[in-house]
Fold each of these.
Amino acid sequence: MKNWPLWEIFIRSKAGLNHKHVGSLHAADEEMAIQNARDVYTRRNEGVSIWVVKSEFITASDPDDSDPLYEPAKDKVYRHPTFYDLPDEVKHM
Amino acid sequence: MKDQNLYNYVLQHADSSLILGQRLAEWCGHGPILEQDIAMSNISLDLIGQCRMWYQYAAEIQDEGKSEDEIVAFRDAWDYRNVQLVEQPNGDFAQTIFRQFLFDTYSVHFYEMLINSKDERLAAIAGKSHKEALYHVKWSGDWVIRLGDGTEESHDRMKAAIDELWSYSGELTKPNETETKAFEEGYGVNLAALKEKRDAKIREILTEATLEVPESTYTHEGGKDGRHTEHLGYILSDLQFLQRAYPGQEW
């Protein structure tokens, strides 16, 4: 079981919402990963849909690159649509 | 007592769920991996939840003012009516899986058929429990296939588990007097029809698992009428200790 691959687990908490990363677990294959995720991450009614993906297929950004990647966005407040007056009828913005 | 036969019928199923739930709970903290440890605890809790519905109904039928806890804690082994299969020891993981599989293939069809019971309470218990049983049989069936069709060692262990437990399988579908009467009166399940469905399911899964279905039809029996193997007394001494030592104690 040491050889079982690691899987990243994504749960959709209710219809219409997006799947969110909740954690990871070990399983022999995708079917077992789904079952394990069901048992580990939805036992308190957390979800209605599960995605699993092998951790090895996730490509992550390098923490050392944080400055060039994310720093430049910090002073560009004009990219946030906060300068518009929203009519009251528009909800969920 | 409103209806002795209905009471016995309800108690049989309550006791089988309780004892199997207790057995599975013994794995808590000892599972082969964290994820399966949780899976077994979940199933254990499902079974305990199911038995509570049964015991609550039993208490109403009995009509002596007893609570579900009193029915569980203050009966000795010979008054327990669970099948002998569920009191068998956990053994290794393969043995636990096969015991579960034998029970799940029964209970999934049992609840599926009990939904049509003319007793509304039984039908309601069945409706809720059937969904859980569908997941249980998927879980245990998948494991039978994984272990049977896995490595040489897992195959051998699965085979040993079958040899160990096969003779406890038949009691589940062999009607006793209570079950025969329950079926005749329209609230119980037709075990002959259930047996056909269950046998087919067992054959399907074992074949996929590259395991053989034993030819023997010999079965231990009597659990449903209070005759048990040596194991039940030990289970009860664990299970009942608190209420025996501190009667009426609550959470």
Amino acid sequence: MKRTRSERIRLGLLYLAVCLFFAVAVARLIHLQVFKSSQYSEIVKHQSSGKVGIPAGRGIIYDRNGRIVADNISRSSLYVYALSHKELKQVSRYLEKLFNLKPGTAESRYGLKVRKFRWIKRHISDELADRLDNDTTVPKGLHLRQETKRMYPWGTIGKQILGFTDIDNNGQAGIELTCNKILAGKKGWADIRRDGLRNLYRIKETALVKPVPGQSVILTIDWRFQEVLEEELRRGVDTFNAKAGMGVFVDCNTGEVLAMAHYDPSEQHPMKPVKLRPVTDQFEPGSIFKAITVAGMLDAGIIDFSDSTYCEKGKWKLGKRILHDDKKHEWLSFRQIIELSSNIGVAKHAIEFGGDALYETARRFGFGEKPGIGLGGETRGRVFCPEKWSDYTISALSIGHSIAVSGLQMAMAFAAIANGGELLKPHLVLCNINSEGQVTRRFDREVVRRVMKKSSVDSLQAFLRGVVERGTAEKANSSAVAIAGKTGTAELPRTNGRGYYKNKFVASFAGFFPYDNPSVAGIIVFWEPEPIHYGGHTAAPVFRRIAERYLVLNPDYFAVTHQTLEETESATEKTIETPDLVGRDYHIALAMAKEHDITIRANMDDGIVVWQYPEADRLVFRGEQVLVVLKSPDTSTLSMPNLRGLSIRQASAFLAFAGITGRVSGHGRVVKQSIKPGEQLTGKKICRLECRPI
Amino acid sequence: MVQRTKQSHHKRSIDEHLLIAYLLSLVFGLVVVYSTSSMIAESRFGSHYYFFFRQLIWAFLSVIAMIFICRLDLKRYAVISAPAYLLTLGLLGMVFIMTPYNGAHRWLQLGSITVQPSEFFKVVMVYYLAFSLSNRNRDIRNTKEIIIRYVPLIGAALALILLEPDLGTTIVVFITACMMFFLAGARIKHLLMAAIPLTATAVFLVFGLGYKKARVIDYLAAIVDPLKGSYQAKQAALTLGAGGIFGIGLGEGRQKLFFLPYPHTDFVFAAAGEELGLVGLLMFLGLMFYMIIRGLKIASRQPDKFGYLLASGMTLSLFINVAINVGVVTSLLPVTGLPLPFMSYGGSSLLISSAAVAVLLNLSRRMES
């Protein structure tokens, strides 16, 4: 049967409609997929991809001897990202159980919302992280993220200098803040893909911009010396019943700060970084400033050493005011004036010297200007310059009143006296090193200006040595090292700015050592010591003890044997040199240890010593434990010693020797080790050490 | 008469070209379903293959159904199309007693599988209309006859599908029915009587009463610039555009990750366009075009009016489905949810589309040269 004409026409129309549709569809597809393609691709790329920051590892801070003083450890942080209300409810219920919260409070407490990122707890304990990792009931929206946390292996020691970082590892104070840019490095960026629900979907294999790890910073501080300074300040404040103590020690030939601390027991955390007061705070120096006054007068050549000056029996009327001496001195030579610290003697010479010259000397020595150590909040101090000098104002300035200085300024001034007359710029950073270990920037000795003629430096140094040998600072006299310096006992200015307290003092001692070949200059200050308030009896002996302990710490620089120290009644520690045990049989080593008054910890009961720490000929305290590694002659492998109770340094030294990477968490002493004592070390790569402060 | 039918029944072998085009579409669809559904399947059911395996089973069933249909004498069993029509109408009513899914009563739960009666209704209606309109006792040019017999029957089905609600299928069914009347030789007057009041009502609803006016305006804007359309239209256009000429590679699609809605069902055409590009889509459209043209050719060479109407009706139902789905995805038509034959995930759609092709293959054996 043939189609009717009508049917053929109608079917033909349908053909036409079909062709028309396909033509339109193809045209539209060409429109969208060819002509609009690049525009639409961009939009799709934009909405389905994103960038995510890759944090750069923060640089490590070392002390001048390469000890790590600020490090990074890995910590887990807990956050919520829930995709639905159901997930959110599960997460809330889980958190309430986990943290023992009241049911129904977690959502408002943490501000949880669907598809919103919320931190729950940053840097959770390893214990909790392990528990969450192994818990299969953890709901979907609850996640852990690995972060790094700043860790300070020395605890509070030097913390005022180091400062701290916030939880996002941004420096907030101290070196962490000053060197933040160098330490922080540069964040990297990675391409990620998102889906329509804003989930991160895939991170492409290669980072778009790799993070540049932060550079490490090597400080000029010697952390063991810093420890000594802080300990001595604490002891001094306790012993002398003082309100606070402060100390700064610098290498007088380079301007490198070796140690710097402030201790005030009334502060909530005395050693936590509130402020680095030796840099930020100023005080009236009192008699230690006489060294500067004398430096100016010697340089000007107005002193005749053979002359004697009448010291008015301790009371000298100057206009309406009276200048006092501590003792009723009569005729004193210039040398004696300094050794005995006669205010009247110095003032009489200063009046002759003149106010402007005196003011100029103070400015020359760096007072009234920032020393430029590069830390935040550095004070410039205050040097008083009246329009017209009176005898009284001159004499006040000459003995260190009506002037305010920082501890650092005074230390640098004494460093100038010690190094032959050059005022140096103090610095805290020796160099920066990048992640490849190359030095990127070195901070060298920088002279601010010459402040004294070389010829007058010798006389001044001799006077200052005399102060210690015969004068007010006899208690600073050490038989181990020749110390030179000047004491100060200043009345504390009233807080209302009018006059001085008659019973509150600032006791200080500033000086340098060794006298023959000055290497370290420094200052010690105690606020309001009672009842003994003289600098010569408080600050001076503390300075001496610190100087002596410096020698113990740096036996290579000073040919001081422990015998000379033992002879001095003031040696604060009993020290000993470690014997060389390497190559000896275990039993012989034991006997040697007994003889040297040290103890030994070994990894086995028998064998030959192949390694020891501390190494031979190191000064250590008596009773110190020496870690030795024994090897039996018939095997080639090492076995793990018991590291528990050892310091991180000692444990790390062993791991380095054994070629094992140490992963340290916490600080203090080792309490747990992942490789058990006695285990063979062949094939072992990593050892985790858990530490806790004791 | 019976003898003659039998003879013509065995006149030729089946249309192999159509069979090959069908099998290629089937494979093409399976690949696309896997690629576009795997991520969603993973996130919802924990297995990449969740949707793919189901579709594979349906494809298998479809091929079996096709072999079965090819062997039937469709004209002899045509008498059962009337009760089948009523039965399907009953099924369309039954969906309302099922619990709604996504707010719609479209599915019937039969054990572990779900079927969409409206999909089955499409082929049953075509079968029934081919049977009924080819009956010499019916005068389809008679207004009274049409109003009494066909308007209630088809109107009831349209009303039920519209109430599900499934506007897309309603339109497909309506247009298919109208076109079959048109091809059967109905008066243009009658067709206009059906089309004009409906169009007028729609225009009045939208522009007079403002019903969904914003969506319609969105749609009109999207014809010119798809980015100004609704979220779905915009994402579909972006997805197509991102594919470009050659696509970004099978499985590499980004838009299926929850940007493009229903990437494995209603918007599968766009998702495939991103991965396979213009080239891939033209291949698929080419297969569809070929099958439809082939179907119309089979229709035109049928020995009787029944075969003519049945073949053209089946072809029409395929064509209208393809046309509306592709129109929606390319922002040429307003958004309405309709599966794309052979490519969208969904058993009912695949089975019914296969059945339509099977009917064409069956009829291809009766073709006259």
Amino acid sequence: MITIYLIASVLIGTGLFFNRGKALNYTLICLFLLVQCAFTMYACLHYTETTANYFTFDSLGLIMLLTATIISIPAVFHSYIYIEESEEMTPRSRATYFGAITLLITAVSAAYLANHIAVVWIFTEITTLSASALIYHHRNKLALEGTWKYVFICAISITFVFIGILFLSLSFVNAHSDDLSYKNLLLHSSLLNSSWLRLAFLFIFTGFTAKLGLFPMFTAGVDAKDKAPGPAAALLSSIVMCMGFVGIFRIYVIVANTPLLHWASLVVGIAAFLSLFIAAVYMIKVKNIKRMMAYSSVEHMGLVMLGMAAGGIGYYAAVLHIVLHAFVKSSLFFQYNQLYKVFKNKNVYHIGNYFKYNTTGAMVVLFAFISVTAMPPSGMFVSEFLIFRSMFEANQLLLLIVVLLLLTLIIWAFAKSIFKILFIPAVNFDESTVPVISPWRSTSQFILLGGAAYLGLNPPIIFVDLIKTSIALLPH
Amino acid sequence: MLHVLLIVFLISLFYLSIANRMTTYVNVLAMQGILLFFVAFFELKNINTLNLILILLETVIFKSLAVPLFLKYILKRNNITREAEPYLPNFVSLIITTAIVITTIILSNTMEEGKLDKMFFVVALSTLFTGLYFIASRRKIITHVMGYLVIENGVFVLSLAVGNEMPMLVNLGIMLDIFASVLILGVFLNKIGDVFKDIDVNQLTNLKDY
């Protein structure tokens, strides 16, 4: 089935690249959404089955696939609005944009489900390619700079992952098997040579941080989200980050089943703490609202990884948190385009009194702010609380106190900008050019935010079961 | 013979670290491609002909002909000055490269005895870190790209070390090489040359958190 999905998506993607007609473009992208939904349905119905040798519909892959499909529908809708209202739109840029979106969603979905580390790696490469086309959408100097930095850092990061795979194969020579699938690695985890495995984990972890948006390779993602169009940035800060998480999670499961668990959690914890620290420092300083949202993603990925490092209930909280973050952050990025349309500026100094110009949009920003800073009744309050609990249970009280202080700083910095945007009038702002924005365009954001709150506060049993199965292989 | 080739490869890194002219960088990269072919030829004993042809195409045709020619074309077309313009003096570069090599040798001695030839490990890792050092210490974007190509060469050496057990990984390495080089060189260096007249990383500092 996945072969059919991949072939169909690639055909649709190439069709989009080469057909510049408007009607045909939108027919094809709708067709792709249908294919994506049908594939997700198929995956749900064939839970735990393996298809085409290299793909398994396991619980973690399924959670992420569902998240990706749910987010991709509003992403395409907002892309439609964005492209049609853009002044620079040409048939060529539209075709490239939608072709790249198709390729990105397909590659990310396949990477979630892949059960072989080399296959994950291949699809990670493809996301770099398609994401770079999205970031370069505006074709100006700044977009080129953002794209160049993204491509270069991602190229280095995938090289790192590849080196990690090579070391992994070296640590695996005692097992007399050349199958690097996760299942086989887990089966032979007692035979893995620990010093090679250490190197392998370091390189694979560092490589995937570029996609996850964690220290040390977070910079590429921040620049990319700043320069990419709003809906594309939403995809980059939700489903692509989930892909980085899946890449790290699957190798972490293997390392956790060897005596290296303690060491690996230390590595992950240090990277996570530094990410939080960097996010706090930059968020106090940054005035560009889009970059501020991107740094907020860095902060949340730091929290997710702190949960992973702490263990226990932290594993559950980490998976929950990354799913909720994907919903909340993508809705914030979808809303960003309306904000930009009103003020024609990203700088907080030139944005203000948003409630006056677009009440519905301002409500989305307010609710998204409440969700993203994990204030109750946000769903992320639950997951963040569980992460803190896991750190408390792991006896990391000092770290917890520092993390809470950093989070306070982040909330203060974020709130300062968001309340400025919502309530304080901007200086020298010409009100006569403010366009009227239909409140209906915010529907998807409300649904995503509401969905995040629902999943956090009252998760359906099936969702809890899926998360529990996906972390079952980790030692508790 | 294998070790001689690998040591020559290592020496080429030292040469790169003190090279001044851009053409020297291109020539050393071309030479490394040839060296890699012979390393692959001697190391991979039970390899089928098709795979060997693929490796030949990758190392000789791609690494030492296509990429250097393309780099020279870019140098000429964008009127890039001949100087490499490092941030640090060459002498310091040489010391840092030496330090990297010594560190990897010490690191290789701490590794538990595996089936890996330590020479491969030392050469591959020191190439990797030297490439990263080149990226960090050179001013021009094109030298960053060359630093990346050096890293790719190091990765190729490492993939050859496991090539006898897992030939698939060598092919994956080739795929990475071609994919990333085409993406970086073909698409973006061309574009950057068109948009920014004199390519210098100092021009790529407009995305910042003000």
